[in-house]
Every structure is written in structure tokens, then in C-alpha cells.
Amino acid sequence: MAQILAPSTQWQLRTKLTPMSSSPITPKMWSSILLKQNKKGAVKSSSKYRVLSVRSEGGTINRMEDLLNLDVTPYTDKIIAEYIWIGGSGIDLRSKSRTISKPVEHPSELPKWNYDGSSTGQAPGEDSEVILYPQAIFKDPFRGGNNILVICDAYTPAGVPIPTNKRHRAAEIFSNKKVVDEIPWYGIEQEYTLLQTNVKWPLGWPVGAYPGPQGPYYCGVGADKSFGRDISDAHYKACLYAGINISGTNGEVMPGQWEYQVGPSVGIEAGDHIWISRYILERITEQAGVVLSLDPKPIEGDWNGAGCHTNYSTKSMREEGGFEVIKKAILNLSLRHKEHISAYGEGNERRLTGKHETASINTFSWGVANRGCSIRVGRDTEKQGKGYLEDRRPASNMDPYVVTSLLAETTLLWEPTLEAEALAAQKLSLKV
Predict the structure, then answer these.
(1) How far apart are CA 414 and CA 335, in angstroms?
(2) Where does CATH 3.30.590.10 sit in the chain?
(3) Where is 246: in which H helix or E strand?
(4) What general EC class does the enzyme of this chain belong to (predicted)?
């Protein structure tokens, strides 16, 4: 797992092999990791060996680490706030740092800031200023201390949300009294794929070739089954440190693919927690020299895609008689299937094929304990007559602000016509 344990790529050195010193390596030194590049099928390199990391007393990397780990708290009240926002593609994350005069406890204590929107695909060059509004804060697991990560959304100087600001609309829906009274809970299962840097091929896969078929990798243990566990574990702990409501993690069906779960989260908090967890994961993979992919079908063929299953319940669903409320919600979801699919992630048609634990993108379906349906209801929910539903349609690259608010809107605010409701109920065999 050399790719995982190596420091960030800017610290990786390519050098010729030099004679080793006769002095023994002290416990404080890092071992030099040498990879021969002349093996059959290996990527060609200009040098015979690649030194991934070298650390010695007083060495450059050692001094850099000392500075990165430096605790400035005893010397200043100032903190570093990392302002984070979503870029022009709607899925890329951007961030920059700002010094704040003292520790803060609420985003309202932070100043607004601006950035060059022409460089992120969010504004024209002749009028490029975009304003960041701080919305949520988390502890910074990279800098530690009182330093923070700040989730922001973006507005024009006139205060109008820019087109890629999906949080603003989500906040409006979640502030509606009907939605507030129902206390919507979300549990989001974020799947992702780790790729080798130079070849963009899944971690642990032979370059230009395929591993054995799926089966032993899901929740697997062992060097021939689990690829990237250090990244998953580092991310898990970093999320807990940051204050993210991460509830678990596991290796997925396709080798090199992982999942973590966030929730239960209420309302807009679900989107904030998923976005900040993605940012932390991007930073960890950056340091590990591994590429993070949220593509819903990173490898074509007989391999599982990557989704972002969204578990959802309301107060009425969780109370006695809640199963009938769930059925009514499923009916509404069936009538707005196309609207949801169009908002559930780019490239999702490559994943929702009806195979590999998915439903067809063109057909809405639901079932109890059926992972091949659009909406799955758990056995416990059916047995107890109350609980939650799982929307299995969202892709791994979905915008959680869009998906969570759309679920609330469709099930709590939108009302179908009586005729459409009756036809859908008959088609889905629902008695509501």
C-alpha cells in the first residue's frame, strides 16, 4: 500500500540510487521505500528507482512536518478559517484560508469574503467578484487547535444566489413550516472510488488489467481484497474530530471502492455534513497521492457503480401508522420520478441499468428489502409499521442539498391531482 502511505506528491522525490550510509537507521527516521520501475507491465519511468519518502533528523521533510504540526495556540488568539465552497461544475470543491482575530463558535461571527468567480467558472471576467456567506463551521482536523473549516454558499455582490448555489433553495424548503414540523431525518451512504494517480485506474488493480471478479471484496479483509483502508480509517477519524455525524464505513463490492454513512441528520445539516466530509476526503487523498472519484460508473462492464443512497423519514413516518405515510410518500415519488432522476447526478444513466443492485433509470419501482428497486423499504419498517424509506437512485456525485430538499418537497409540500394519485396507486399496488 505504498501509494497510501506516501506523503503528498509534491514531496515525492525521483532520484538515482545512492550508496547507503554505514550508520544504522534510528527509530526516528522513516524507511526509504524503493519501488523498482523495470518490472514487466510497469509504467515507464526516467529513473530506475523511485524514492517515495525519506526522513532524517534535521531533514527538509522533518522540518516541514514540525511546522505543519506547530501549535500556535499558546502564542496568539488568532485562528485560521478555511472557507470552502462548491465550484462551477457543481461537484468540485474550492477553498482558501483566512486569519480570524479570535476563536468563533457560530458562522454569524465570521465575515463575508469574496473570490474570483471567473477562475471557477462562476462569473464573467469583466464582473468576476463572487461573495462567500459563511453558513456552517467544523473543527479543522488538519490544522487542529481552534482552527476551523467553514462551509459557505455563494452570491453576487447584490446578494443574489449564483446558479450553482443549491444550498440557498434547500434552506428555503427546510425553513417551510410544514417541513420544520415533520423534522426530516436523513442518513446518506456516500460511495467513492480510489484511483491510482498516474493511470486513473482503481487502487489495487493491476495496471491495464482486471482483478478477480466481484465477491470477496465487499467488507473484505486482506491485502488481496482491501485496497485503501488507511484512507478510509483516516477519513473516519477526521470526520469525528471535525464534528461530522459520520455513523460508519465499509469496503464496497468493487475493489478499490469504499462507502461511509452520515446521519441521521436533520434538514439542511445533512447537506452541510456530506459536503464537508467530501472536502476532508479530498484533502486526505491529496496527501496520500491517490485520486478520489465520485463517478457513478468509474469502470464499465460487470462492476458495481457508485451511488449515494439516501435514507429518509419524517416524524409521521416514525410514529405509529407511519407505514401508510411512507406509502403515500412513495406514491408522490413515483409521480415525480423524472424530476428526481434529472437532479440525482450526472452520468447516473451509466449506473442505473437494472443490474448490479440498481433499478432501471426509466422505471420507478419499490419493494421491501429489494435492492433492485428505486425505493427500498426495510423489513423492520414493514414489521413495525413505521420507520423510513431508502431512495437508491441518487448517484455518488449527487448534490446533497438538491437531493435532500427535493425529497422533502415531493413528500411534504407537493400535492398530485386525485386522478394521478389513483392511477399511481393502482400501478404500484399501494393502498393509501
Answers:
(1) 10
(2) 177-428
(3) strand 246-251
(4) ligase
Q: 3-state DSSP call for residue 358?
A: coil
Grid coordinates 550508520 are at which residue?
Answer: 23
pLDDT of the residue at 20: 37
Q: Cα–Cα distance between 229 and 251 in angstroms, integer?
A: 8
pLDDT at 414 over 60: yes
Q: What is the pLDDT of residues 357-367, one digit of tens each?
A: 999 999 999 99
Percent of the chain with pLDDT over 70: 84
Write the CA distances from 373 to 355, 367, 370, 380, 419, integer angstroms. 10, 6, 6, 17, 25
> Does 190 or 430 have the greater pLDDT score?
190
Decide which of 33 and 287 is more confident.
Answer: 287
Cα 384 to Cα 248: distance, rounded to the nearest angstrom: 24
Pick from 139, 77, 152, 144: which is nearest to 111 by CA?
A: 152
Residue from 45, 424, 4, 393 nearest 195 by CA? 4
The answer for residues whose C-beta is within 8 angstroms of residue 19's C-beta and 6 or more apart is none
Q: Count CB-CB contacts under 10 A for residue 17.
A: 11
- Within 8 A by CB and 6+ apart from 252, the residues are 191, 217, 218, 258, 259, 304, 306
The 3-state DSSP class for residue 139 equals strand
Closest to 330 in 3D by CA, of 376, 267, 387? 376
Alpha-carbon span 385 to 286, nearest angstrom: 45
CATH fold of the domain at 177-428 = Creatine Kinase; Chain A, domain 2 (3.30.590)
**SS3 (DSSP) at 406:** helix
Q: Does domain 79-163 have CATH number 3.40.50.1100?
A: no
In the three-class reduction of DSSP (H, G, I as helix; E, B as strand; rest coil), residue 349 is classed as helix
